[in-house]
Amino acid sequence: MSSLTPKQRQFLKAKAHALKPLLQIGKAGLTPALVEELDRVLDAHELVKVKLNDNTFEDEPGVVAALNAKVAGLHHVWTIGHTLLLFRPSRERATRFPLP
Predict the structure, then answer these.
(1) Maximum Cα–Cα distance for the chain, whole Å?
(2) What range does the domain containing 16 cover?
(3) How many domains, the chain?
(4) SS (H, E, C) the chain
(5) Over the stretch 16-64, which tens digit does the pLDDT of each residue have?
(6) I need a labelling partner for 24 at 20 to 30 A (CA). Which of 2, 40, 60, 68 fits?
(7) Would you give the end-to-end CA distance of the chain in angstroms?
(8) d(Cα 30, Cα 39) in Å, to the nearest integer?
(9) Strand pairing partners for 75?
């Protein structure tokens, strides 16, 4: 899957409505440990909210570009405020979110 269609984004946004952010990007920014943890969390949950804290020096477009470069198969679904919604189908099992 190269990029998400508008219908797929809408589907994933609806599924993510009740989710809470599982990771936070703070003052240290995108550390290798954070990228590694995101990789593990995506394998477990597939659809993840990531919060950009107020004290971070990172901006949303820069974070998304850096994460896309460092995490294989990552899709940026949506951003609202300081919260990113990221998706990657599981590499180990059948996806919990079959896209339309």
Answers:
(1) 38
(2) 6-86
(3) 1
(4) CCCCCHHHHHHHHHHHCCCCCCEEECCCCCCHHHHHHHHHHHHHHCEEEEEECCCCCCCHHHHHHHHHHHCCCCEEEEEECCEEEEECCCCCCCCCCCCC
(5) 999 999 999 999 888 999 999 999 999 999 999 999 998 887 788 888 8
(6) 2
(7) 12
(8) 13
(9) 87
